[in-house]
Amino acid sequence: MNTEDNHKNKPTDTPKTKVSQDEQIPAKKVKRQATQKQLEHPLHGVKLTYILENLVEYYGWTYLANEVNIMCFKRNPTIKVSIKFLRKMSWAREHVEDIYMDMIQEETYQRLVEKKKSNSQT
Question: What is the pTM of this model?
Answer without folding.
Answer: 0.63
